[in-house]
User: Fold this.
Amino acid sequence: MAEIEIKGVGKTFRAFTALHSIDLTINDQEFVVLLGASGCGKTTLLRIIAGLEVPTTGEVWIGGRRVDRLPPRARGISMVFQNYAVFPHLTVFENIAFGLRMQRLPKPEVVRRVTRTAELMHIEQLLKRYSGQLSGGQRQRVAVARALAMEPDVILMDEPLSNLDALLRLEMRAELKGVLAASKTTTIYVTHDQVEAMSLADRIAVMHGGDIVQADRPVEVYRNPAARFVGSFIGNPPMNFLPARALGEGRWQVAGHDFVGPRSAAPQIEFAIRPEDLHPAEHGLVAEVRVVEPLGPHTLVTATVAGVMLRAVLESTLVVAPGDHLSLAPVADRIRWFDPETQKAIT
Amino acid sequence: MPRLLPYLLLAPATAFLCLFFLYPFSLVAIDSLTRDGTWSLANFERMAGHWKFGPTLRNTLLLAAIVVPLQLTLALLMASMVTRLDRARGMVLYIFAIPLGISDLAAGLVWLAIFEQSGFLNSALSGLGLIDTPQLFLGYQSKGVIFTAVVLTELWRATAIMMVILVAGMGLIPKEYGEAAEVFGASRWQRFRRITLPLLKPSLQTALILRVIMAFEVFAVVLALGGTNLPVLMSETYNWQFTMQERGVAAAYAMVILAISVGFTVLILRLLHVPKEARP
Assistant:
């Protein structure tokens, strides 16, 4: 059992505040992805959980034990590093066995665990090789095997797939998901790749400027962004935003059309819609087409609505050319509203 | 032309080496192997037969055997400290490296000023009331003290050269290896022993070869502190050349120094060899 509790964790490097005050509870065996752009503090948070960084404020609890002042080895964790950190002077076998030897496990147990994890990661034929004789993908497998061999309560992963080429990344992603689910460990996974986050996570914690902006199931994060940043960061292409002017009584004017929205005292808020939730229909928003990109299953159209850039994912059967005028109607229950002051969602 | 260009560019350096290194070297080699114009091993026989040869060889090897391991340990310690510093790293490195800027003779004289009869050590001891009259520390009867003084001077003078090389080598080891080892349960000592040291092998090689060769060529420091009381290979070479005026025997000594240096260089290269596949 390893529930992780992060209570008010902050980190300041000299004049720079990397983390403000993070609160996050991760359930036993849960797969949580820390997602954010570079510099958002996600790696710092992971390193604090690992014990490679000491938090300036706050507490970290793993499995009911306060660990933020303990060295990494006393925390029951193991880690996969971004550059794998497979020791070049040791064979694959010795790399996987490294942590087990440090724990002074009996030799037969070391051999048993190394063999088992090597088979799990399909690298049993590489055990005698050195890191320099491996491909990037194989090194990645060694790094994961080394982490699994520890049979830890918690596995921490710092952008483990970011150094692989696209095809390999796809393959490893699926494999990691299977292996980690079977290992029944709690996993914290750092990435800047939203597709990776969506496909792997039980829960995504979106980070921005040293704060967690939203932590929820992937579908929730996608469908109901808690903040404008989440909508603009997740989704490819991201959410469209249009200014909405108050007409009173919860009615808002967006590009010359009336919409029913939240009851807010603000004179102006933002109307938001995902590109795939716009459909050609009569009496929609009038959009002047700028760029048409046929992508196969659908066509990506970039257009302007009342001078604001907007993207729509449309049926590939639609015949449209730059300069055309389209009438695009948003799916009513997919419209979201944001407060431009607080950047938060209004419901 | 482009195919010849690299050789052309190397030619001046090659010519320089041939003229100023290979040529004099062969002259010395020939000197050591000839006597009165004929080939013979007489010079080597004369060298080895002299009563001073045994102590000379023993002194030199013993000095190297004591100084080099001590320096290696100290240099590793200093390099680890410097590497770990966040601030003032450059300054600490400079301070550690100051003795490097002093010639070996000057270093010998500095320590002579400490140990001699009217030196700092005597004034300090008498100032503290520990001795009544100045002591003769470096007399011909106290070879142990002379030897210790030479060891101290060598440590003070030449540890930094190893440290500088090791600091550079440690800087090349990615931080992630140490962090990975830490996460997987290695203590500070285990990280040093199992990660830093093996990955430092190439730098250790360079530092050791450089230092070991320097140790066999120790001369001015010994001369300053011990005069003729502590004969070493280099001082004997000097003696045979200039005092005894026997060029051939001096050349034989030079050849012995060369042989020992080459021997140890090969040994160090072997012992600290990193197989190609195990290189980062």
